[in-house]
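Hi support team,

I've been running sequence recovery on a batch of backbones for a student project. Most finish fine, but this one hangs at about 90% for roughly twenty minutes before it completes. I'm not sure whether the input is malformed or the queue is just slow. I've pasted the structure tokens below so you can try to reproduce it. Let me know if you need the job ID as well.

Thanks,
M.K.
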């Protein structure tokens, strides 16, 4: 029985939603589909190329809007290429019939963001992306727009994930400060903590070889999102060397993989989410927000603190990013219960104890 305090649902409780029919799909869950604090969402068998992104709005369904805006249909049964610069809507296999006390939010998976695949989940009647209201019953759809690399996807591919929550479980500034004193949430002598979360800054000092990040190349081959270690990184990425300047000029609309200066720790009874920094401080943003599961960077799960890999893009004008500049904030939420499996050692997770690291697709 799920407890009724505020918090994020853990893996056991997510499995309970499936067993109760609150989450359903036409085929069984994949063995590794449930994460410590989220559920991976799977693509259905058809992608719709659309003229433009859209929201259904109150009283409207996504299917109704698709009839107006779709250009053509693409079968994903045997795999298909989704081209850069195009917008696709794909019905997801998972459908929801949430109890009235539960809401949900969605986010791209880590590997999705690191491939610069812009994704947002849409519910019927939605007035905003990536938000599922309490008690929602109906289908889910995902908007997919590859920005840098063309990709191959198929029915069952996972590009996004969903978190279920009861009530408002976000920690305020004072609670964050208390938790940081107990658990050392970020490796920083004087962390910037407020009700908006814990500030994360950029590391431009580089590793032992001077590597500070990567910039995505244009006109590359396709990337199959379901293949691991299949691609030579130099075919897709330009390594960036710091040369001692501790700064980087972001070219407009180029895609960069960088890393946080702070190592991050998410204790087992908490989950975190990376949120973009206020664009008023500069014409750049961390392009994709991201979920951090319980156990990320946790010593008992093989972490000892893990850097946050950042997908950064400048808009409109070139922008000079300097070492130590704040680029995002980490928001922490309480879990309803401790997950059965923590991120890291329990799951063989790809990005535990990471520094600067590309997605799992590259060797």
């Amino acid at each position: 029985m799920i407890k009724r305090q505020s918090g994020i649902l853990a893996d056991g409780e997510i499995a309970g939603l499936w067993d109760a029919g609150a989450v359903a799909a036409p085929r069984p869950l994949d063995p590794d589909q449930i994460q410590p604090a989220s559920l991976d969402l799977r693509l259905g068998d058809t992608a719709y190329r659309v003229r433009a992104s859209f929201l259904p709005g109150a009283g409207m369904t996504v299917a109704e809007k698709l009839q107006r805006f779709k250009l053509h249909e693409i079968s994903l049964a045997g795999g298909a290429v989704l081209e850069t610069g195009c917008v696709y809507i794909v019905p997801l296999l998972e459908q929801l019939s949430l109890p009235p006390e539960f809401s949900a939010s969605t986010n791209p998976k880590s590997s999705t963001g690191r491939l610069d695949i812009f994704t947002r989940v849409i519910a019927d009647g939605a007035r905003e992306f990536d938000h599922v209201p309490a008690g929602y019953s109906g289908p889910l759809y995902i908007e997919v727009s590859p920005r840098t690399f063309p990709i191959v996807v198929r029915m069952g591919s996972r590009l996004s994930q969903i978190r279920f929550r009861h009530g408002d479980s976000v920690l305020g500034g004072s609670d964050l400060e208390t938790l940081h004193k107990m658990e050392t949430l970020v490796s920083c002598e004087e962390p910037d903590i407020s009700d908006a979360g814990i500030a994360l800054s950029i590391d431009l000092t580089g590793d032992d070889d001077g590597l500070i990040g990567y910039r995505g190349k244009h006109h590359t081959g396709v990337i199959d999102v379901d293949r691991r270690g299949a691609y030579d990184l130099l075919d897709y990425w330009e390594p960036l060397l710091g040369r001692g300047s501790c700064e980087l000029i972001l070219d407009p609309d180029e895609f960069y993989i960088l890393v946080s200066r702070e190592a991050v720790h998410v204790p087992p009874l908490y989950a975190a989410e990376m949120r973009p920094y206020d664009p008023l401080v500069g014409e750049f943003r961390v392009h994709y927000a991201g979920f951090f599961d319980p156990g990320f960077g946790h010593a008992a799960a093989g972490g000892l603190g893990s850097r946050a890999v950042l997908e950064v893009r400048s808009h409109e004008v070139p922008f000079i990013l300097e070492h130590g500049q704040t680029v995002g904030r980490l928001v922490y939420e309480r879990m309803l219960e401790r997950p059965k499996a923590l991120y890291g050692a329990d799951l063989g997770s790809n990005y535990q104890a990471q520094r600067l690291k590309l997605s799992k697709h590259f060797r």
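--
Follow-up from support: It reproduced on our side and the slowdown came from queue contention, not your input. Residues 89 and 302 are 38 Å apart (CA to CA). No action needed from you.
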